[in-house]
Predict the 3D structure of the following.
Amino acid sequence: MNPTPNALCFGDGLPASGAPCSVTVSAEGVTIVPTGNAELAEEAVAFTAMSVEAGGLDHDQLVVSWGHGSARRTLYLKDPAVIVAFRRTAPHELTAHLERAAQQVRRARHSHRLLWGSLLGALVGLGLMLWFGSDLIVEWAVAKIPIEWERKLGESVYQDFLSKETVLKDGPAVSAVQEMTQRLAEKIPDNPYTFQVSVVQSPVVNAFALPGGYVVVFTGLMNKAESGEEVAGVLSHELNHVLQRHGLERMVKMLGLAAVVGIIVGDQQGVLGLAKQLGMELATLKFGRAQETEADLTGLRLLSDAGIAPDGMIRFFERLSEKDGGRVELFSTHPMSAARAERLKAELAALPKRMPNPFTFEWKQVQDSLASSVPKT
């Protein structure tokens, strides 16, 4: 039975790729036994006859040489057990050689770690620069998310939120919001969403939209508004956050590369799982200035297309901002500014002049009905 090869031997008359052999270490030196190559004879080499150095691509081998001229042989040892045995057994004359070999290995490995560490750091730095410096990657990733994924994500957060609140099921306020939503949705071309809008009893002056077309309007906002057109302005703004997928963009940016990888490989459960970790943070995500401007302008145009007086949107924002010093809940996530209002006015002036169609409800009756709703305790 041939012994298991654990080294390669090189020299005249041996294959260029080396002759496999089995090496054992003794107190006198090493014994080389060929493993299937008839040109290599069994040989015992004394420590006193050899020299040692580090070798191999990673400098993790011991290279043992002996002999002169055509009789010179070189042995490459890579088996860790044989190398340890060699170093423990070798006499003092070879210790210095072995220590130099070990130092060469440590230096080589340290250099490799520095090189790979630098490359990895450069790649991570480049990735972060791209991630934070450009929205193109985020927009590209969001475009890959199917509407069905988005709907499941938004519905989960929506239902969880509503389960803890007092939701108005019917009545003038619900009918009014439904009429606004229907008129706006009818004028959205190729609309992939079925908007679900709920009226929630709360004094907070706010409204928010979730991915997938789920919208919440608080009664505090409806009480503050002086007309249905003002509430419709806020609602149109929120619907356009959904249509432009602003919530998804903020979500992907928060979740980072893990979300992008999940989207690329089509891992629906993984992406939804990551997104659900955000929970109600999805409803309070602060949009960027460009996203707010986009929702303002597209919202204003949608109001005009739906025959709803678009100046109600501007009037409501301006009035609340002035009365409450800009500290109302709505503007904590939708910061109002004079420049933003002026931009809306300029856009309104450029829109075609259309005669608005009034709503079918009386706004005072809608507000009076809100007084009878009681918040959940």
About this structure: The two ends are 85 Å apart (CA to CA). The chain has 15 helices and eleven strands.
